[in-house]
Each structure stands twice: as structure tokens, then as C-alpha cells.
Amino acid sequence: MSATQQYVLLLGIALGTVGVVLSLYGVARSMGRTRREPGKDVPASAGILSRDPVWGRYHARYYGYALLFLAFDMEMAFMYPWAVVYKEVGLVALLDMGVFLAILFLGLLYGWSQGALRRQ
Amino acid sequence: MTVAVVLMALFGSAWLLAVIEGWTTTGRLSLAAPVLSGLAHLGRESIVPRSPDRVFFEAAPVLLLVVAVLGAAVLPLAPDLIIADLGTGALFINAALAYVLVALIMAGWGPDGAYAMIGGWRFLGQLIAYSMLIVMPITAVAMRAESLVNTAIVGSQAGLWNIVYQPLGFVLFFIAAMALAFRAPFDLPIAAGELAGGVDAEYTGVRLAVLRLARLTLVVTLASATTVFFLGGWHGPLLPPWAWSLIKTLAVAMSMLLAGRYLPRIREADLMRWCWTLGIPLALVNIIIVGLLVLVVP
Prior knowledge:
Chain A is mostly helical and 120 residues long.
């Protein structure tokens, strides 16, 4: 199979899964409707309806980690192709990536020393 | 044909897992119980909360299921029993599993409920913790196999499984996989005792059935990934290859569920601190050890 065929197949499986779920919804709908009753659609909130939409309320206290995560995630984009040719290129590849990782790791240590690695 | 067999193996494993979990919790072995409770969900009302973000609310369970199925589609059960043996299979599974986060944020944001939303955002913090421990061990696996093709990765373990070659990577990946599947010690977005169900809280009826199925399937997919990357995939004596794949996958999945039963839920702050101050340095050490081994040992 060519790469295109493989991706088309994967797309087909994804669409097929969606189709199965939709038909399940169809079956459920054919078995009965939701009866409309007051108060039934209140979200779980200890019985009291919240005054404002809840959408503005969460403080992402892990943002210190999140910033470091960006650096590490970018690094992984380089590491996959590197890992494939690693054995072929040999020691040079290890040293190259070693320097890169060392800089990144120093960054992690610096962030740690400055208190980035805790819930703010 | 292959597609049908692989999907049957996937959902069959999920069913078997549900049966065994029911057996160990209730003490009754009932083969029909998971199917019956699924059917019962179909007959129940599926309520939409008061002011939902409808697109997110509807998309979340479906997306979670699609992700689990797509992940399983690039993992081999036997040398020729794989739906799509992509040239970048090990990368594709990462990309697919990243959408677990998207699905959970959608499930948290969609219903406009306080508990659900906290659960969703909490999982973003959980991703920041576990994510590096998924990708870095896979990199080390790819270094040994010199390939991102999943069948080649299994092929590279013919002589020695990766669990022996890089045990550190296995431990990190196993823990991170449990966090990804949000199974028990890491079930922060669900958190039955403190968040009233978290992202599960607002889903009822058929939508909840799909969400639960997706969650169970995700466990099987991750157990299968662990098998392929670290437990030598289809390799094993006597039995046919596909049988070994299934046995190992089920064993890994059951050990995940078992570990969850005996460990208390971890706090989010602790999870992040341990992952970043202990997990990531260890994962880097693992990459360096494997790098040296690959160069030194022929």
C-alpha cells in the first residue's frame, strides 16, 4: 500500500467510527425522547445554578511548566528524525544531540532554580 | 478483512477487559454484563445541559473513540496483521493520542458545568506532566530500531525485548500511559470523590455509553502500544504471533487496572513536580544509555 492509500484507509476508519456512533445515537433516539422537565438540565453544581458562565473561572496554575513544556515539545520535533538516522551517523549524532539536550537540560535546571517547577 | 479482524480484536479486548473488571469488583463472572449495561444506556435519557457549547459537547465522546481506534490501527498484531503500516507509525500514534487532550478539554468546556470544566483544564496540566514521558521513551525505541515503522520496531526486538534493553524507558512509558488513559491513580479529570465525575458528570445515556467505551478502548490501545514498543509485540514461542500480541496486550491492560486499584489518587501538583523533576531527567538518561548501547553493542 502506498502512503496515500494508507491515509485514505485511516480516514475511512475514522469516518466509519463516527458513522457507528451516529447510528447508535439514532437507535437511542428511536427508543425514546428526553422528557423536558424544569431543572433537569442544570449542570452538576451542588443544586445551585451558578450565576455566571463557568467559562472564565479556571486559573491555569501550571503555566510555569507549560512554558518549559513548549521548549521540550519543540525539541521532540527534532528528535524523531534524529533517532531514525542515529545509528547510521554514529558518535557524531550522539554528541550533536548531547550538546542540544545539555542546553535544554540546563534550561530545565535554571527554571527549577527559579521556582518554575511548582504550581504557581 | 484485516480491518475487520483488527477492529474485532480491539473491541473484543475491551469487552474482555470490562468482563474481568466486573468480575474482580463484583465477584460475579458475567460475559454479558458489559453489553447489557451498554444497551441499558441506550434506553436512558441523554440530557443536554442548560447552556452548552453544543459542538464541543457532542464532539468530545466521538473524538475520544476515533482517537483510540486510529491509534490501534497503526499497531501490528502480527507481521501482516496491521491496518496501516505507516512509514511514521510511531509518530502517528503520538499525534493521535494528543487528541485525547483535545477531547477531554471539549468534554470539560462543552457542558458549561463547573466540575466538568475543572476536570478538563486539569487534564491539560496532566498532559504537560506525562507527555514528555510518552515521547522520549518512544524516541529511545526508535533509536534502537532505526525506524519509525511499527513492524520494524517489533522486528528489532526479535533477539531481546526492549523491556530488558531499556527497562527505565518501559517503566516511564507504562506510568505515562496510565496517566494518558486517565486510569485510577491518575484519574484527575474524572476524580469521582472530589469532582463529582468531572468530565463524565454531564454526560448521560447514549453519550455516556460512547464515552465509557472510548475510555476502555483507549486503555487497550495504550496496552497494545506498550506491547509493540517494549514487550516484543508478536514475538514468543509456540503460540501464533497474533495470540502473543493479544495475551501481552491484555496482561498490560490488566496490570494497569490492577495498579489503579491499590494506589491512591495522586495530586495534580505532585504529579507535575515528580514528572518534571524526576521523570524527564530519567527519560533523558534513558536516551543517553540507549544511545551508548546502540553504538557499543553490535
